[in-house]
Design a protein that fits this description.
This protein is mainly α. Helix content is 76%, strand content 0%.
């Protein structure tokens, strides 16, 4: 059964992957509950890296 396979795979992962795994699980749940296109969700992290900076906060603070 797929659930047992998934559980075995999770149990075999090193603990340093757990945070990333939880992020992916959250993404799957959120995607299911919303109608947001996958491309928008997938680009969010990469866009945040460039936009979520102190320089950007200063640039946009007057708006």
């Amino acid at each position: 059964m797929v659930k047992e396979q998934v559980m075995r795979e999770i149990e075999s992962l090193p603990t340093e992957f757990y945070s990333e795994l939880m992020g992916f699980v959250g993404y799957l749940k959120y995607r299911r509950l919303s109608n947001i296109p996958d491309t928008m969700l997938l680009s969010e992290k990469s866009l945040a890296e460039g936009w979520d900076t102190p320089e950007e906060d200063i640039a946009w603070e007057d708006l």
